[in-house]
Write a structure and sequence with these properties.
The complex is a heterodimer of chains A (about 120) and B (about 110). Chain A has about 120 residues and is an all-beta fold. Chain A has strands spanning about 5, 10, 20-25, 35-40, 45-50, 55-60, 65-70, 75-80, 90-100, 105-110, 115-120. Chain B is globular and about 40 Å long. Classes of the chains: A mainly beta (about 120), B mainly beta (about 110). At the A-B interface, strand 5, strand 9 and strand 10 of A face strand 4, strand 7 and strand 8 of B.
Chain lengths: ~120, ~110
């Protein structure tokens, strides 16, 4: 059974960089799209971006200037960095897996439990 | 990239059927069959219900079904049960190889 686990600081100061890592267990990180998705308290889901196992990335245009994602296939991990954070970046951050192959898209089928990151001084 | 449009809330009685709409544009919902639906209970991670507009993952009840017409996708839940009370989100692959979520719909089982 594939499992995803987010890790990183739960409190980040304004203007600093939010850094999170997602560890994938029970399956390979190869040949999947790995996304970060966030949810501000009481609000809806927002897709932040993805990194493919090869290292190619694509980000939400609204966050593109502040986001960097990376992957370490040897550790079955991928990471998110979001710089110049403000209170508006306070949210539960989820990592999730997406499979697209042969013209079919199988959705975000596995999710981490989510980690709350609060931006505050 | 604008969020897909969903009704903020819907409600129904046990045993009834409800439908949640998800309206996008010709650049996302209308452009492909890469539409999926998610159920989220309070303080839980979202759960995949439907992928590729109409397909259910293994283990998801056949009371959940999806459809699409032009720029609008829909999720229908038949035989409503108390456990269906949750938030529901649609998602679509869109222009520029990005994904976009709907704003979410809160389902209340009366």
């Amino acid at each position: 059974q594939v499992q995803l686990q987010e890790s990183g600081p739960g409190l980040v100061k304004p203007s600093e960089t939010l850094s999170l890592t997602c560890t994938v267990s029970g399956g390979s990180i190869n040949n999947y799209f790995w996304s970060w998705i966030r949810q501000p308290p009481g609000k809806g889901l927002e897709w932040i971006g993805y990194i493919y196992s090869s290292g190619s990335t694509n980000y939400n245009p609204s966050l593109k200037s502040r986001v960097t994602m990376s992957v370490d296939t040897s550790k079955n991990q991928f990471s998110l960095k979001l710089n110049s954070v403000t209170a508006a970046d306070t949210a539960v951050y989820y990592c999730a897996r997406y499979l697209m192959i042969n013209g079919l898209a199988y959705g975000f089928d596995y999710w981490g439990q989510g980690t709350l990151v609060t931006v505050s001084s | 990239q604008s969020a897909l449009t969903q009704p903020a809330s819907v409600s129904g009685s046990p045993g009834q059927s409800i439908t949640i709409s998800c309206t996008g544009t010709s650049s996302d919902v209308g452009a492909s069959n890469y539409v999926s639906w998610y159920q989220q209970h309070p303080d839980k991670a979202p759960k995949l219900l439907i992928y590729d507009v109409t397909n259910r993952p293994s283990g998801v009840s056949n009371r959940f079904s999806g459809s699409k017409s032009a720029n609008t996708a829909s999720l229908t839940i038949s035989g409503l049960q108390a456990e269906d009370e949750a938030d529901y989100y649609c998602n679509s692959y869109g222009s520029g190889s990005t994904w976009v979520f709907g704003g979410g719909t809160k389902l209340t089982v009366l």
